[in-house]
Design brief:
The complex is a heterodimer of chains A (about 240) and B (about 150).
Chain A lengths: L6 H32 L14 H28 L4 H31 L7 H22 L8 H10 L2 H11 L9 E2 L2 E2 L3 H44 L1
Antiparallel strand pairs in A: 1-2
Helix pairs in contact in A: 1-7, 2-3, 2-5, 2-7, 3-4, 3-7, 4-5, 4-6
Chain B lengths: L2 H26 L10 H7 L7 E7 L5 E2 L5 E7 L4 E7 L11 E8 L5 E9 L21 H4 L2
Parallel strand pairs in B: 4-6
Antiparallel strand pairs in B: 1-3, 1-5, 2-3, 3-4, 5-6
Amino acid sequence: MHRFANPARFLRIAKPLTPWLLWMGIALTLGACLWGAFFTPTERLMGDTVKIIFVHVPAAWLGMGGWTGIAIASIIQLVWRHPLAGVSARAIAVPGATFAAICLITGSIWGRPTWGTWWVWDGRLTSMLVLFFLYLGYIALSNASSEKGDTSRVADVFGIIGAVNIPIINRSVIWWESQHQKASITLGGSSIDQAYLVPLFVSVAGFSLLFGALVLMRMRTALAEMRIEARMRRMADY
Amino acid sequence: MKPKHQRLLLAVVAVFALIGAGLIAAAALREEASYFYTPTTLASANVAPGKAIRLGGMVQKGSIVRAPDGVSITFTVQDKDKTQKVAYRGITPDLFVEGSGVVADGRLGPDGIFIADSLLAKHDENYVPKELADIDMTSAEHTKDTLSK
């Protein structure tokens, strides 16, 4: 693991990887959204409203996946003091919060015509809203530490504790009766028709690549800022 | 023990304690965090008439009766084992069809009929194109067991 501990080595890999992830991500996302919007059939009960899943599902997946990443990075930061762990956790936070917000907004837009309401306080919606607030808390906490690269220990602990919410979001529709429907895609299979499932997977892949590109860009920016800071400090010493 | 191993041990213990605490809390919330009663849980819950509650389930096939005034309806909500009669006055959501899911806000009347103030449709986890000819478009009956787990 410490093979990549050296930021210089990380940058050598991250720099050529970023444009690949970015352009592949843009191409797949655009393709999947156009496919989903114009070349999928209307749904039996929902009509065209079904097409919002091509944004909603990837956003939910990345919102939850982002926090899982923050939790793992926080553990690595706490235990191994890995120099890149704090940088990556901070880089994930803002895109993660953005996707959690996109998930909530698109879900709300879908809920109005489908359920007849913008919002209800059931287990799934509430726990997802809590995730969004956790992100805001994490961003504030990690920005409160003065060091650019390091997260404070409080932020690391917060990142790990907040991960409790992830299985709760996932299980909320099984543990509790809820307004939100149960999972359509499980390990056992899918109850989504192929006509929607294939573009949905393309969309999830596309958004995920975009997410990766964003995180790498933010990490490189943070590392560059750290170098500037270090150089300024050296110059100030003369 | 090296400090690194100490921290690792601490982190592992903390993570397990957290997961345990989360599971215990979730199990304790099992009843309270449910968004609605199903006919079965309602029957065993002893809810006083007039208390504001939510009822959810599937609209029983053939149970929707529209009154001549055009806005009053009665129907039956069912889960796997039990049924509950519901009366409602107002506009029903577009997805409110027989055999599909519904969540109703309201209270039990003295006669045991659930008086709904508002109705929300509940979509199930199935996504099926309109064109699939073998499916009755006005019903979601083939998914009956998805809601009443």
